[in-house]
Input
Amino acid sequence: MDVKTGFFYFFSLVMLFSAFRVITARNPVHAVLFLMLTFSQASAIWLLLKAEFLAITLVLVYLGAVMVLFLFVVMMLDIKIDALRRSFWKHFPLGATLGAVVVLEMAAVLMSGFRVTEEPQVLGAVGQLPVAVSNTKELGVLLYTEYVYPVQVAAVILLVAMIAAIALTLRARKDTKTIDPSVQVRVKARDRLVVMKVEATRAAPAAPVTQEEVKS
Output
């Protein structure tokens, strides 16, 4: 067994263990952390399979954005773990059925086998020697040549969704104090600082003497 195969089995074992802990961890925060570990091991396996673009995309999109968002949401929510434990057996038949279906599908794929193909090689101009092929470069060339219109349509849809999300969240509220930058730029010193003229300090007038004090 070479080093590459050893790393493949190591990453696979860690990924299977972390995936099992995702569904068995009692604490939701721990489950999210194990899910992040699962994604990281899957990206390492993709790197071994020379799928660099998929590995980097998994790390940047899921680990860098989605899973961090899930982690903060789970930490901020007041999740009642006792109530979830009581409803476990209520949803156990449906979960067991779906799990059995997934196991059967994976078993069918593994038993049927995979068609092993050799890695494509590109011959160079000098001496007809094989040249290394960059999967990321080839994928980028394919996206921006043959599939340029679907990429542009997807970009426009994502832009519209982003603008809609910002417009829905930026609503004016009457109970909050907001600052207008245009007003702050045009502000002058006399609008912020007012000099008040105060009279000079004088001695306090003497208190009048009462009749009781005179008799004493």
In short: The first strand starts at residue 122 and ends at 123.
